[in-house]
Write a structure and sequence with these properties.
DUF2141; three-stranded mixed β-sheet; mainly beta; DUF2141 domain-containing protein; five-stranded antiparallel β-sheet
């Protein structure tokens, strides 16, 4: 039930490369971007997908095709999960401001969120329940240069629990 509500905006198949050219950080670039430290990975399988959205509830986690078609902000970065070491992702922002971000650990690399397999995280690590978090709970602010933030991954634990792994 959680997956259905969390992913209600994903009913339309996404275009895997949409937002990637705009989101990919480039070497020695100093413009607005989020440098995301990924915490609490369950394992080193699959892929990581970081997405940037407008910081409002209507557009947060909305379908990428609809956002881009409406001229709204959407960025995506996808990378293989590193085999070892600290994990950091970088995603460019269109300019200084406040944005909502989501990070998915696609453990089976099938490009779809599976409640029983995959992990998800947001800035501020909001408590996850029966619905997606509000954009205000998943937002971060960037100035004219890179901003460092951390995102803690959450995985299904038991029948209804969803949260960070206990160490």
């Amino acid at each position: 039930m959680i997956a259905v509500i969390l992913l209600a905006g994903a009913a339309i198949p996404s275009t895997p490369d949409l937002g990637k050219a705009e989101g990919q950080c480039r070497a020695n670039e100093n413009g607005p971007a989020f440098l995301v430290e990924v915490l609490g990975l369950k394992d080193r399988k699959g892929r990581l997908k970081l997405e940037l959205y407008p910081a409002n509830d209507e557009d947060f986690l909305a379908d990428d095709n609809i956002l881009v078609g409406a001229g709204k902000v959407f960025r995506r970065v996808e990378e293989a999960t590193p085999a070892a070491g600290p994990v950091q992702l970088c995603i460019r922002a269109p300019g200084p401001g406040t944005y909502a971000l989501s990070l998915m650990h696609d453990r089976d690399a099938n490009r779809r969120f599976s409640l029983s397999i995959d992990g998800i995280g947001f800035p501020g690590n909001p408590k996850l329940g029966w619905s997606k978090p509000h954009a205000a709970a998943a937002r971060a602010t960037v100035g004219s240069g890179p901003a460092r933030i951390a995102i803690t991954m959450n995985y299904r634990r038991g029948l209804f629990a969803f949260g960070p792994l206990e160490k």
